[in-house]
Amino acid sequence: MAFFSKLKNKLFKSSSRLEEGLDAIVEDGGEETTNPDPVIPQPEPEPQPVPELPEPTPAPQPAEPPAPIPTDPTPAAPPPEVLETRGLLGKLFNRREDRTAIRRTLDDDMLEQLEELLIASDMGVDTALRVTANMAEGRFGRKLSTQEIKALLAQEVARVMDPVAKPMPLYPKRPQVVLVVGVNGSGKTTTIGKLASQFKAAGKKVVIAAGDTFRAAAVEQLQVWGDRAGVPVLTAPEGSDPASLAFDALTKAQNEGTDLLMIDTAGRLQNRADLMEELAKIVRVIRKVDDTAPHNTLLVLDATTGQNALSQVETFRKLADVSGLVMTKLDGTAKGGVLVALADKFGLPIHAIGVGEQIDDLAPFDPEEFAAALTGLQT
Ligand SMILES: Nc1nc2c(ncn2[C@@H]2O[C@H](COP(=O)(O)OP(=O)(O)OP(=O)(O)O)[C@@H](O)[C@H]2O)c(=O)[nH]1
Ligand SMILES: [Mg+2]
To answer: What are phi and psi of 90, to 5 degrees?
Structure first.
């Protein structure tokens, strides 16, 4: 199975509240009609090949490492018109079965219901209002089917998410230091294992530092991941200062020509000031070895957390200068709307998403695929 179809099956396994809500909104007050004209700009029927448009990027084959290891921190995003006229929307609005369907007139009542649904799906009030306003623009009074509503919503979600879908940048400076932070159980250690495996497969010399020195079990867990990824794990005795381990690990990595040092940290609740201060200390101490480090500070968020993810970003950003996000547990959860709020509010890059507990269950973030999964859009 191609990697992306496997990923698609894993994203949002269960049908989401959002999807069910959209169905219910259209059925409430809708009636069966045949659509005279499309509500979303369509590509010309059977268009001639347009040479100046870039070809869509082919999906990676399973033989390749699951996520590309980027060398360019700002890969080009597809221009908006590519999203608009090609891909799933284009395909969708050529579908015959959607010509006769239950449709509901887009009016104030329907917009209000849509807003409420998006807010209930963790998108946040500001984002929900903006997204619905964009959906309604130029379409007020038109009759829309569920499929069309889903496609419109997916288009708006993809538009919000597109600018934040960026792989983790690797800069020329070696060793690159990646500090991984987040609340308890968000998936830090697992994500480090997965990332280490991908970077190793891409030919990098990787070392992991077990900066969670609170629990002996945490070190053992990381060692298991290190073994799976084929990457050494530097440890310190239980209860020792994680900042001093980070210092030693970076010094060693410099001496040994390591490409990438990934530092795991203990989970910390954002209301524990002492633990948060300890994190700030880790950053201060590694800067004594390399004042440009850490080069990436990844905040790992659990997609099932809901709105609390927003305050996690706010707190961790103040202390650790978060450079990017990894969103875990997007498999099997019906949630995920909070990612849209995060993207809209903070604009922090989403480098990767976790879609399972296995070593290859970390994928690049694909906005269109995410939007389709979130809205339940069948493509
Ligand atoms: N389904 C699923 N489970 C995940 C994913 N990522 C992590 N997990 C699971 O979530 C649990 C916590 O993961 P850890 O990697 O230990 O989380 P952590 O942030 O290191 O936890 P602490 O060190 O205790 O703060 C484990 O059972 C993982 O297998 C994911 O993408 N999908
Ligand atoms: Mg951990």
So the answer is: -60, -45
Q: Could you identify the residue written with the tokens 């239980």? A: 238
pTM recorded for the entire structure: 0.82
Beta bridge partners of 298: 180, 324
Ligand nearest to the CA of 222: 2
Task: Answer whether 152's CB lies under 8 Å from 173's CB.
Answer: no
Tens digits of per-residue pLDDT, 112-133? 999 999 998 889 999 999 999 9
Among 328, 355, 359, 362, residue to substitute to test ligand 1 (most atoms within 8 Å of Cβ): 328
Rounded to the nearest integer, the mean pLDDT of the chain is 83
Structure tokens at 341: 């709020």
369 lines ligand 1 (CB under 6 A): no
User: Which atom of ligand 1 approaches the CA of 264 most closely?
Assistant: 20
Longest CA–CA separation in the chain, Å? 71
On the question of pLDDT at 110 being above 80, the answer is yes
The three-class DSSP label of residue 331 is: strand
Classify residue 171 as exposed, middle or buried by CB count within 10 Å of its CB (0-12, 13-18, 19+).
exposed
